[in-house]
Amino acid sequence: MENRRAIEWSEAAWLNQPEAVLADGSNLLVTARKGSDFWRTTSYGFVHDDGHALLTDFGVGTAIEVAFVASFEELYDQAGLLIRVDEQTWIKAGIEYTDGAPYLGAVVTHGRSDWSLAPVPEWDGREVTIRASRTGDAITLRARCEDEPWRMVRLAPLDPGATAAAGPMVCAPTREGLTVRFTSFAVTDPDAALHS
């Protein structure tokens, strides 16, 4: 992309400080607190707003990309990208461990959360990039593993007048010791079209 710019980790601010954060060259190693998650009400009946996200401004007409490497082992281990307006309006997309395998999924929350997902066992332990393009009243979420083609994950609504932030996200709802290696964080032009 012509206008791609790396975002320095120090340019963004933490929503809910993780257990540990360690710079490793250009990478950032983030260890989640046990019990951390983002979810609102649906099916489970609880509200969690204590997941970890390193957020920067996310305006209309831009895209945010986050890349990471992780091997997930426990139920609901997750990493990816969070887009946040407020505690009731947010979107997360990435890899989450459920039913014994990593899944590519997204949660869209407008008061209540929903969840869509598809298994990607072949992505375990490999670099995954999540891309969110913000155009008009929509967020287009895509993902890829290493240099494979982009996959469409979700098209979701977001008020074009909303002030939003976005960036790397990690949660460990059920265990201690989940560490994720984030390998890049960038802003670029949004996808030119919904369909290629």
Automatic annotation (TrEMBL):
Gene3D superfamilies: 2.60.120.200. Transmembrane segments: none annotated. Pfam families: DUF1349. It comes from the Bacteria. InterPro entries: ConA-like_dom_sf (IPR013320), DUF1349 (IPR009784), UCP022704 (IPR015987). It comes from Kribbella sancticallisti. This is DUF1349 domain-containing protein.
